[in-house]
Specification:
Blueprint (H helix, E strand, L loop, with lengths): L17 E7 L3 H13 L5 E4 L16 E2 L10 H20 L3 E2 L3 E5 L5 H14 L5 E4 H7 L7 E5 L3 E3 L1 H14 L3 E3 L4 E7 L2 E6 L2 E10 L5 H7 L7 E12 L10 E4 L11 E4 L5 E4 L3 E2 L13 H8 L2 H22 L1 H9 L10 E13 L10 E5 L2 E6 L8 H15 L6
Parallel strand pairs: 1-2, 1-12, 2-9, 5-14, 12-20
Antiparallel strand pairs: 3-8, 4-8, 5-7, 6-7, 10-11, 11-12, 13-16, 13-17, 13-18, 14-15, 15-16, 19-20
Helix pairs in contact: 1-5, 1-10, 2-10, 8-9
The structure holds flavin-adenine dinucleotide.
């Protein structure tokens, strides 16, 4: 199960004083981008700078582990395009590298008539997005796929699956090393300065002068973008997502992945029941605004993070719109029975005694000044640099496609000549 620093840490490599390309952030997105850039530019020197003592310790190591098929996203959006392509490429990659994965499929369940129009809209989006094999099912169809689940109608997405994203990230890291790249951990980038024809990145282990940089810093993306001269809008606001797990003797309640019909105006998918590649069945996550960008424990509060969240006008605009949802989330976070009751709408047999506490993740969610939770992926530029400013779910699924998108952008912006 996820840990903030895993025991599989690679011996850390020294950060170079100079390189052609620096990637800041060793999560799945940064590693995928580094892998793609070094494959296209084998003669370039490339370095990944990661602040923790190991890679993949933040969002990449604390999520649902689901390879999304692209059902939910607005047709034509970056999420729609990059998720559908990314899922296809990720399955192929896992097959080639022998990384355990399972195309177990998922059901999205409507439990009452008020959800049917949203189910129709999801079906329309899935079809426009080119999600393979998606079909409408009735109550009997739900029971056939998930004998312990109940609903009046649903959608079945057979191409949705599960994987261990940290294992994928470790494999990308190996590809980078095999291609001659460096991954330096314990290297928190603290300042960014344009210095003539390079960027000067001051970090915990010295300074690296990089020709160009791509920032893929997840929960800290806005801070680094601002340090590099970008607009502070959007700001990252951390949303904690806590999970429960089914007791081993109750895992038979869930065969694959059971999801609710989400509220289309929120970027979160709602409490779901998901089989994990290691055999666990997770229930969650909650979605509670957190007091720190690394609030893996509910009580973790960091003064700077809190100050930045509360000092952002968008936070108050969002809260005035979503306070009821916030109150429900608070109840789910505080009361296990309320959390389990929400999940038992789909699996009525589920009881508080069937679950145990599991882990929590922290979503790096971009929040605009006007109070909108930014739904799509956001990428932007500053001098000699590109920034990934919003890559929440399905960012892990989409990592290989995001990497291609960023590498295309880098070729244009940095005038890189590939190969
Ligand atoms: C609860 C939850 C459930 C999710 N479920 C799914 C799912 O089922 N499927 C899916 O596809 N996606 C899911 N996601 C989203 C997915 O996890 C993210 O989209 C993905 O991991 C983003 O990867 P990343 O590399 O951008 O961010 P991260 O994994 O957070 O990596 C960012 C890295 O940048 C480093 N960094 C930050 N600041 C600095 C600095 N100053 N200097 C150096 N390094 C720095 C951090 O230490 C970190 O390692 C989920 C996310 C959460 C939180």
């Amino acid at each position: 199960m996820p840990a903030v620093s895993s025991t599989t840490a690679q011996p850390t490599e020294p950060a170079p004083a100079r390189c052609d390309l620096a990637i800041v952030g060793g999560g799945i997105v940064g590693l995928a981008v580094a892998r793609e850039l070094i494959a296209r530019n084998p003669r370039a020197s490339l370095c990944v700078l990661e602040r923790e003592t190991d890679i993949a310790t933040h969002q990449t190591g604390h999520n649902s582990g689901v390879i999304h098929a692209g059902v939910y996203y607005v047709p034509g959006s970056l999420k729609a395009r990059l998720c559908v392509a990314g899922a296809r490429e990720l399955y192929e990659y896992c097959e080639q590298r022998g990384i355990a994965n399972e195309r177990c499929g998922k059901v999205i369940i409507a439990t009452d008539a008020s959800e049917l129009s949203r189910l129709d809209e999801l079906q329309r989006r899935a079809s426009e997005n080119g999600v393979p094999g998606m079909r409408r099912i009735d109550a009997a169809g739900i029971a056939e796929l998930e004998p312990h689940a109940r609903g009046i109608a649903g959608l079945h997405s057979p191409s949705t699956g599960i994987v261990d994203f940290p294992a994928v990230a470790r494999s990308y890291a190996q590809d980078i090393r095999d291609a001659g790249g460096t991954i330096a951990t314990g290297c928190e980038v603290q300042s960014v300065q344009v210095a003539g024809r390079s960027l000067s990145l001051a970090h915990a282990r010295g300074t690296t002068e990089a020709g160009h940089a791509v920032f893929c810093a997840g929960a800290w993306a806005d801070r680094l973008a601002v340090a590099a001269g970008a607009d502070p809008d959007p700001r990252i606001v951390p949303f904690r997502g806590a999970y429960l797990r089914l007791a081993p003797e109750r895992r038979e309640l869930v065969r694959s992945l059971i999801y609710p019909v989400p509220d289309p105006s929120l970027p979160f998918l709602g409490v779901h029941l998901t089989k994990h590649i290691d055999g666990d069945v997770l229930v969650g996550p909650t979605a509670l605004m957190a007091g720190a960008r690394d609030a893996y424990r509910l009580a973790t509060v960091r003064r700077r993070d809190l100050h930045e969240t509360l000092g952002w006008p968008g936070t108050w605009r969002m809260l005035s719109r979503w306070w009821r949802t916030g109150a429900i989330e608070l109840r789910h976070a505080a009361l296990r029975s309320a959390f389990v009751r929400a999940a038992s709408r789909y699996v009525p047999e589920l009881r508080v005694g069937d679950v145990q506490p599991a882990f929590a993740g922290v979503r790096a969610q971009a929040l605009a000044r006007d109070g909108k939770l930014v739904d799509d992926f956001v990428f932007s530029h500053t001098e000699r640099a590109l920034h990934v400013r919003n890559a929440p779910s399905p960012g892990a699924t989409s990592s290989l496609a995001i990497a291609r998108h960023i590498a295309d952008e880098a070729e244009r912006a940095f005038a890189l000549r590939s190969r």
